[in-house]
């Protein structure tokens, strides 16, 4: 999948493209990240991308033209490579909350353009004319869209077939089945008088699967009860799951 990222700070994305799982995915060609700085299309000597807000108030507002010219350059790049342009997404506090389901849906597109805002805001006319969807990583404010964009891209790239060393890792992640992941253990078997649960040492795969499912349900009920209600509403809980939940 290809991501075209509009950002005033393209250097930040080396954390995504050069390290870990996402870095390997980019190196192997499973994911492509193209970085576009709106200052590169500005013709004035100062490379201005922002100005004061009409009506007063604190902070500066990103201007329409540099962003629209950048979008035009991205679409021209797609056209030259025979690609159909995917949706334009703005990372913004007012956006829909990003989730594992959103990540899976994004993977259906061949490419996506991400707009990383800075300063106080982006001119609403750019949003109205160009943005197809808005996404947020939570109900809080950060200094720009770069970190949310990288978080979102990481979640999507993990789902690309071949990105993970073990394909089962993505299938077993938290939220894939609507619940939190079960606890994990590794060597040593005993640490500071704390032992690995006996069921994980017995080699009985059916019992291990049952234990993991129950621990997933238990953790989700304790830490994120809202996910239990959502899983129930979406038909993701079996009768056996419901019997176990009633014992907690």
From TrEMBL:
One of its GO terms (molecular function) is tRNA (guanine(37)-N1)-methyltransferase activity. Residues 1-229 form the tRNA methyltransferase TRMD/TRM10-type domain. The keyword Transferase applies. It is found in: Cytoplasm. One of its GO terms (biological process) is tRNA N1-guanine methylation. S-adenosyl-L-methionine binds at residues 117, 137-142. Keywords: Cytoplasm, Methyltransferase, S-adenosyl-L-methionine, Transferase, tRNA processing. Its EC number is 2.1.1.228. It is an enzyme of class 2 (transferase). SUPFAM superfamilies: alpha/beta knot (SSF75217). CDD domains: TrmD-like. It catalyses: guanosine(37) in tRNA + S-adenosyl-L-methionine = N(1)-methylguanosine(37) in tRNA + S-adenosyl-L-homocysteine + H(+). One of its GO terms (cellular component) is cytosol. Homodimer. Belongs to the RNA methyltransferase TrmD family. NCBIfam families: PRK00026.1, trmD. Specifically methylates guanosine-37 in various tRNAs. This is tRNA (guanine-N(1)-)-methyltransferase. The lineage of its organism: Bacteria, Pseudomonadati, Pseudomonadota, Betaproteobacteria, Burkholderiales.
């Amino acid at each position: 999948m290809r991501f075209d990222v509009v950002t005033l700070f393209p250097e930040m994305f080396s954390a995504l493209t050069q390290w870990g799982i996402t870095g390997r995915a980019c190196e192997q060609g499973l994911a492509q990240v193209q970085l576009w700085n709106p200052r590169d299309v500005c013709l004035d000597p100062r490379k201005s991308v922002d100005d004061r807000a009409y009506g007063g108030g604190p902070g500066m507002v990103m201007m329409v033209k540099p962003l629209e010219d950048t979008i035009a350059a991205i679409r021209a790049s797609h056209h030259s490579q025979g690609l159909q342009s995917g949706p334009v997404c703005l990372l913004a506090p007012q956006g829909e909350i990003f989730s594992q389901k959103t990540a899976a849906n994004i993977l259906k597109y061949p490419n996506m353009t991400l707009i990383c805002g800075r300063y106080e805001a982006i001119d609403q006319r750019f949003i109205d004319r160009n943005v197809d969807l808005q996404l947020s990583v939570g109900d809080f404010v950060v200094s720009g869209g770069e970190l949310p964009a990288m978080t979102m891209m990481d979640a999507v790239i993990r789902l690309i077939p071949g990105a993970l060393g073990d394909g089962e890792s993505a299938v077993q992640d938290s939220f894939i089945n609507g619940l939190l992941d079960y606890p994990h253990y590794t060597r040593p078997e005993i640490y500071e008088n704390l032992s690995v649960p006996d069921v994980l040492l017995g080699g009985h795969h059916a019992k291990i699967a049952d234990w993991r499912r129950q621990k997933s349900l238990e953790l989700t009920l304790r830490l994120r009860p809202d996910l239990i209600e959502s899983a129930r509403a979406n038909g993701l809980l079996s009768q056996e799951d419901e019997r176990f939940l009633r014992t907690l």
